[in-house]
Amino acid sequence: MPTIDQIRRDYQSAGLNREDLPNDPLELFGLWMEQAIAAGLSDPTAMTVATVDDLGQPSQRMVLLKQFDSEGFVFYTNYESRKSKELANNPKVSLHFPWHSVDRQVTIRGTATKVSTAQSLKYFLSRPRDSQIAASVSAQSSRINSRQFLMKQFDSMKHKLENKEIPLPDFWGGFRVVPKEIEFWQGRVNRLHDRFQFVRGIDQWDISRLSP
Question: Is 127 annotated as catalytic?
């Protein structure tokens, strides 16, 4: 068995060329997302969300992207979770999509703001019923004594709300990350990867090739 410092592979992708890039990075992101889904990647919408606490210590976790358009990238969470509390103090955030199976990565840096209650409710009602209940009973990021305690809370809430509409918890909703910078990484042979950085300007995106 190789040691971890011996584990490596070469990337054989066709590459990413400057002349093939659209002026809007959302167009390229949409194409890459479609291709990641078509390639059968596990959880193609999964992304790392990195936040920073008031001492400057970063933390990361995986969430699922639920919407993206010209206004930004949207995910949903508990507003009392660690990530939400850190975003309340410092709304600057970084997202990362690790599409290793197709030799691609996308990194997004920007600022997070809460979406409207109406938008949160619309998405909440689209979730499976058990997922709605789980969001209602989980005090995300808080300490609990056991899984049995969590399941007891879940079962109790499920029984209480049987045949009833589950209300949107006032501590649950979405964040929209408005991007200021988007980087596309395409693996290439000999670690000479293609990296292109889009930085939002006044009325257009500035594009730069970065050294690997």
Answer: no
For 195, residues 6+ apart whose C-beta sits below 8 A from its C-beta are: 183, 184, 185, 186, 209, 210, 211, 212
CB atoms within 10 A of CB 198: 25
Q: Which residues pair with 114 in a beta bridge?
A: 175
CB atoms within 10 A of CB 92: 15
pLDDT tens column, 84-109: 999 999 999 999 999 999 999 999 99
Catalytic residue among 109, 191, 195, 200: 191
* H/E segment holding residue 89: helix 82-89
Q: With H, G, I as helix, E, B as strand and everything else as coil, classify residue 146.
A: coil
DSSP helix/strand/coil, 63 = strand
Q: Which sign does the torsion angle of CA 36, 39, 45, 50 carry?
A: negative
Contact 75, 87 (CB under 8 A): no
Question: Tokens standing for 9?
Answer: 């592979």
Residue 166 confidence class, pLDDT cut points 50, 70, 90: very high
User: With 0-12 CB in 10 A as exposed, 13-18 as middle and 19+ as buried, what is 142?
Assistant: exposed
pTM for the whole structure: 0.91
